[in-house]
Design brief:
With 210 residues, this protein is mainly α. The chain has one domain (4-208): Serine Threonine Protein Phosphatase 5, Tetratricopeptide repeat (Alpha Horseshoe). The protein contains 10 helices and no strands. Helix 5 packs antiparallel against helix 6. The radius of gyration is 16 Å and the shape is globular.
Length: 210
């Protein structure tokens, strides 16, 4: 079971890892975007971190909604509305739950991806964060169906997200700023897929220690 303390640990770890990878994500984005993905994500989660004292006493749904609304209001570019919507939807999936079962965590991942697809209208194969999150969700569902532990479910989701992220390198971008580059977008790893993988890796880390 995942408690609100566990989700706070996850969000804290995401804030740390995005800060550590700020320059790396921005470097990836400089090749095919506005060169601001790392800066924007670090700014957004720094603002989220400022709300941790108040969030610690709230339920998981409220935590997710706080993250979502904070990202929408503080993160520039496309990633703010996309991740903001994802966390808001995740909050909806966690409504009225004091703790999350493995099935609840998978449902939350599904809602997270659903928010991004609804907002960005992206499909797999278009060189976006959807390319990391879609295989991650499929792996999580498969692991859940096999009655795997939450640690195993999230580890498999993170591993699938990493594969999906790497698979964006040879893709031609057809969505977002990167699509303006046409053929020149080929050969570059998508920054959004990379930040999605980092978030799932943090989730797997926290679940492995529960």
């Amino acid at each position: 079971m995942m408690t609100n303390e566990d989700t706070m640990r996850w969000l804290g770890r995401v804030a740390e890892v995005l800060h550590e990878n700020r320059d790396y994500l921005t470097q990836l984005d400089s090749a095919i975007g506005d060169a601001d993905h790392g800066i924007n994500m670090d700014r957004g989660f720094s603002a989220v971190r400022d709300k941790f004292p108040a969030m610690a006493a709230t339920d998981i749904a409220a935590q997710m909604r706080t993250v979502g609304s904070t990202l929408v209001s503080t993160v520039g570019g496309a990633s703010g509305p996309l991740y903001g919507t994802a966390f808001l939807r995740a909050g909806g999936a966690a409504a009225n739950k004091a703790e999350l079962t493995s099935a609840d965590v998978v449902a939350m991942l599904e809602a997270f991806l659903g928010g991004i697809v609804a907002r960005g209208k992206a499909q797999p194969g278009e060189k976006t964060m959807v390319d990391a999150l879609t295989p991650a969700l499929a792996a999580a569902k498969q692991a859940l169906a096999e009655n795997a532990s939450l640690a195993e479910i999230t580890a498999r989701a993170a591993a699938a997200a990493e594969e999906g992220m790497k698979a964006t390198i040879p893709m031609l971008a057809t969505k977002g700023r990167a699509s303006y580059l046409g053929e020149r977008s080929i050969g570059h790893q998508d920054p959004g897929a990379t930040s999605s993988w980092l978030m799932l890796r943090c989730l797997a880390e926290v679940c492995s220690k529960m």
